[in-house]
Amino acid sequence: MPMDYEQRFRAVVDGVRDEGNYRVFADLKREAGRFPHAVNFRDGEEHPVVIWCSNDYLGMGQNPAAIDAAAEAARTYGVGSGGTRNISGTTHLLVELEKELADLHRKEAALMFTSGFVSNDATISTVAKMLPGCIIFSDSMNHASMIDGVRRSGMEKHIFRHNDPDHLEELLAAAPADAPKLIVFESVYSMDGDVSPIGKFCDLAEKYGALTYLDEVHAVGLYGETGGGISERDGVAHRVDIIEGTLAKAFGVMGGYVTASASLIDAIRLTASGFIFTTSVAPPITAAAIANLKHVRAHNELRIRHQERAATLKKRLADAGLPVMPSETHIVPVFVGDPVRCKAATDMLLEQHGIYIQPINYPTVPKGTERLRITPTPLHTDALMDDLVLALTSVWKHLELEIAA
User: Fold this and answer.
1) Which of 8, 61, 82, 380 would disulfide-bridge 252, Cβ 3.0–4.6 Å?
2) pTM: predicted TM-score of the whole model, two decimal places
3) Catalytic residue of the set 107, 249, 314, 343
């Protein structure tokens, strides 16, 4: 008897729903010039909401200079790139953008991809494949895109405990001394907001002859004097072999990239299928990215204000007795610990208080650690924070979640 395919698909969906992890996308209309305010289309009506969970960390998605640059690029170049760079050539704007990105991280060269997921997956797998017998050492909390890249490489891998240099050294010391090695880790981990010991990992890489691959997607634009990320802030960018980042978060647009030596970038350009066979980023997006990259690099006061907003919100939530999880960065996680009540909390916030925060459930975080992930920006005012704290307190009491006395 042939398989009932539709029944199988429904069973998968029902299983996710039964676990309390079924996800519903909020139908939002962000309004340029009014972020973090937006409109939620729900039940056939429009409802005003305040966004508290965007990865547009600095509100650069509405930067007037970027909007003007995108419009002008559309008029000048058109709205599409015409295909892959191998077939259609490279839009000159991409050449300019890659120079800016290389300079941001003080590397010789950069290469743009269509997303941060693709840049991680393609680069990690490609670099490892170019090194016969390569052994990959990957942090246990690395992003899914990095995990996919490690798997797709087909190379031997070892997982070290999260942010644990001692465990990493144990694994490196046990590996053959002459084997090529690649250490893969992030700077800011976006669900807990903790930071990796980049300098210590670089020490180990130098001691054991390994390359280092650093994902800075949740840190570029936000840390360092010019927004180069945690590696710039800590003065270790020059010690990291490959720095990967995104334009979709602090820079407010889209696209991922890697920066490294000219020879390494050239090798990736020539061999990575995730680059070769993908249509390149469109001119309007590229032009907007250049405008925002230059703006964010030149305005350190944005980073100062961003950190102040995050610290202020953490204190206000803690003072209200809400379970703010420890975080040394701009990420503000509030612990729930149950998928059903996590979803119920965000539904109540949206429907009763006009506050949009997505529930963070498995598989994004381990089961039992479900949370709200709040990301204040320089545009979230004290008044908006007051509204958020009052709303969260009300929801917590209604759902009988823990509030400190």
Assistant:
1) 61
2) 0.95
3) 249
